[in-house]
Amino acid sequence: xxxLYARPRSVASLLMAAPLTWLVVVYLxxxxxxxxxxxxxxxxxxxxIDTSPSLVNFGEIIASSTFRxxxxxxxxxxxxxxxxxxxxxxxxxYYMARVASHRVRGLLVVAILLPLWxxxxxxxxxxxxxxxxxxxxxxxxxPLGVSGPGYGDVALWLVFTYLWLPYMILPIYxxxxxIPTGLLEASSDLGARGxxxxxxxxxxxxFPAVVAxxxxxxxxxxxxxxxxxxxxxxxxxGNVIFSQLGAAGDLPLAAALGTIPVVLMIIYLLAARxxxxxxxx
Amino acid sequence: MMARWGLRIATGLVLAFIYIPILVTIIYAFNPNxxxxxxxxxxxxxxxxxxxxxxxxREAFSSSILAALGATAVALVLGTLASFAxxxxxxxxxxxxxxxxxxxxxxxxxxxxxxxxxxxxxxxLSFGMLTIIVGHATFCIVLVYNNALARLRRSAxxxxxxxxxLGADAxxxxxxxxxxxxRxxLVAGGLLxxxxxxxxxxxxxxxxxxxxxxxxxxxxxxxxxxxxxIVNVAAVIAIALSVIPVYxxxxxxxxxxxxxx
Lengths: 281, 261
Known about the structure:
- The complex is a heterodimer.
- Chain A is 77% helix and 2% strand.
- Chain A has a two-stranded antiparallel ribbon with strand order 1-2.
- Chain A is globular and about 75 Å long.
- By secondary structure, chain A is mainly α.
- The two termini of chain A are 36 Å apart.
- Chain A contains 13 helices and two strands; from the N terminus they run ααββααααααααααα.
- Helices cover 79% and strands 0% of the residues of chain B.
- Chain B folds into two domains: 1-45, no CATH class; 56-259, MetI-like fold (Orthogonal Bundle).
- Chain B is an all-alpha fold.
- At the A-B interface, helix 1, helix 2, helix 4, helix 5 and helix 6 of A face helix 1, helix 3, helix 4, helix 5 and helix 6 of B.
């Protein structure tokens, strides 16, 4: 054993063997298979899959205006939700990191953290109840003479913003907390006003943290099909992937559609890494 | 001063936004009326009794517990091994490990779901509890890994070196020095893995076959009008069983524990 310890490389490979086998074989292997099967073709008439490589599925996706619309709608929603969560998250994150006392800060972190872990499907379901015809939203808006958005894409935007908000708050909070107070003092010593310090010092330094948060908000919106199916009647990428695989049994087309979020996320992650978001995770 | 109050108000509003939907769900679980109108008609525990009688719900509950325990066990072993290798050794591809471990939760769940579905089908595995556990463990590893890695990076390596210098072998050193430092981080990571697995629905849908976990049961029953009150009770159980472990994890290892989900 000690002799082994003297050869760190072999110990490291022993330690890494099981986790790497699991992640590479089970996970990356499955991803690779998914990628390959995107080039297969499914025949509904015979219910068989032809494994000779072809670009039929990608051709179908590009040619279909329905798929194009759905892909754009999903990306648009993901971008909108990311922007909304960033705007809502920044003030509370700033309060937590730079204004609140040490004790309040700790309480707030727990307060943000716990609901993040509360069952996802329950939270979507809760919004279904809130947004319903006789729900609490319409009830509380009634005296004002307005009604809630009901079910639909606007409601879905609200629900996604709700669901992913903590994922944005926590990295921004961590990023803001890391800014050395000395930098802010230096900025004001050099004559910058509060607003200037905010724009020139705080925002640029907090930006990688916002990008880190956006990885989650963007990715989670891209692949979700539960929230859309509960809250709106329009289709999102997740819905079509789900129905292609589930109802239609067309794995190749589902796989080809699945490459859209994968490619988008890989580009996103690479860009995020360049922007320093990984250190902010 | 003005800005400070603005920030306080914004913080309050965000907290209200975060908590109101959860409170609404909890309130409805105690609502005697079958229909979820607002405001509720009173307070009653009748649906908790009805939920305890409901066979489908009971089975879903135990499936979720089993899946979460299995996934947590696998994630604990694999996550600890990987974190120890990355924290204490240099090897080719070390920088990539964190990336690969993170990938299963960074990519959309539906992609992980259909990918696992495709490979399990290809291997002719029968879908059920085992495939659920494999799927969940894959994205739970990162929780144990991150917690353990953070702890290992903070704890001094010199203690381990001192132990070895004093004649302890590698295994003794791990058991007597490294593991005690790591223990609470592992409990925290394990609790987080449990909570994440207990809640997961998207990957589960593609790997469960006929097995219904609690989230799947809720998703399938929310439309059925006569089940609505029991779904509310199931929702409260689901919230409790994910929030309580996370709270404990947070107490055990501080803020950084639960921030990387």
